[in-house]
TrEMBL record:
Protein name: Allophanate hydrolase subunit 1
ATP-binding in keyword set: yes
Native source organism of the sequence: Williamsia marianensis
A GO MF label: hydrolase activity
Keyword presence, Nuclease: no
Length: 203
């Protein structure tokens, strides 16, 4: 990894892969490092913020003593089951792009556990990785102006669930009624980095 100074309170870890970034995020959160107030993962980075200036030297030394949590160790992490009605408007297009039948797309999406890599785009939106590689499809050529809350989609290596109505260009294969964001929940986001997600097909 490479650790860069990011202002006077933060360090930015540059990882080689998304999986490695998840591993660093889980390891840092589990270590409960003194003075750390926020850990924000990205696709290839992890931003670690302290509670004041002058603490980054001690933080850097602490990070050098850590190793990222392996994917095998993370298989024992919290699992969230997400019921999905696979009635998405792009299901047939996903089948065409992958060479699978619509039923095979659903089986592929539900058979392999996904893992939360990082959040972004909107509060409660989680980028999920690690699913069946056959489901890697490009974004839609033209984004929709309104994607309903709960829509489940695919884009590139990721799957995701829209937490609220918003524009979006992901390929939509179904929807869930499970709320992704709830301000009365602690934490408000249902899906946290490192969490395993299993999709379940329901009527």
């Amino acid at each position: 990894m490479m650790v860069l100074t990011y202002g006077d309170r933060s360090l930015l870890i540059e990882a080689e892969t998304t999986d490695q970034a998840i591993g660093w995020t889980v390891a840092i959160n589990e270590a409960n490092l003194p003075g750390v107030v926020d850990v924000v993962p990205g696709a290839r980075t992890v931003l670690v913020t302290t509670n004041g200036p002058g603490r980054t030297g001690a933080l850097r030394a602490a990070l050098e003593r850590l190793t990222p949590t392996s994917g095998e160790a993370r298989r024992d992490s919290t699992t969230v089951e997400v019921p999905v009605v696979y009635d998405g408007p792009d299901l047939d297009d996903i089948a065409r792009l992958t060479g699978l039948s619509p039923d095979e797309v659903v089986t592929a999406h539900t058979s392999t556990p996904w893992q939360v890599a990082f959040g972004g785009f909107a509060p409660g939106f989680a980028y999920l990785i690690g699913g069946d590689p056959r489901l890697q499809v490009r974004r839609r050529d033209e984004a929709r102006t309104k994607v309903p809350a709960g829509a489940v989609g695919l884009a590139g290596e990721f799957s995701g669930i829209y937490p609220r109505q918003s524009p979006g260009g992901w390929q939509l294969l179904g929807h869930t009624d499970l709320p992704m964001w709830d301000v009365d929940r602690d934490p408000p986001a249902l899906l946290q980095p490192g969490t395993l997600v299993r999709f379940q097909s329901v009527s």
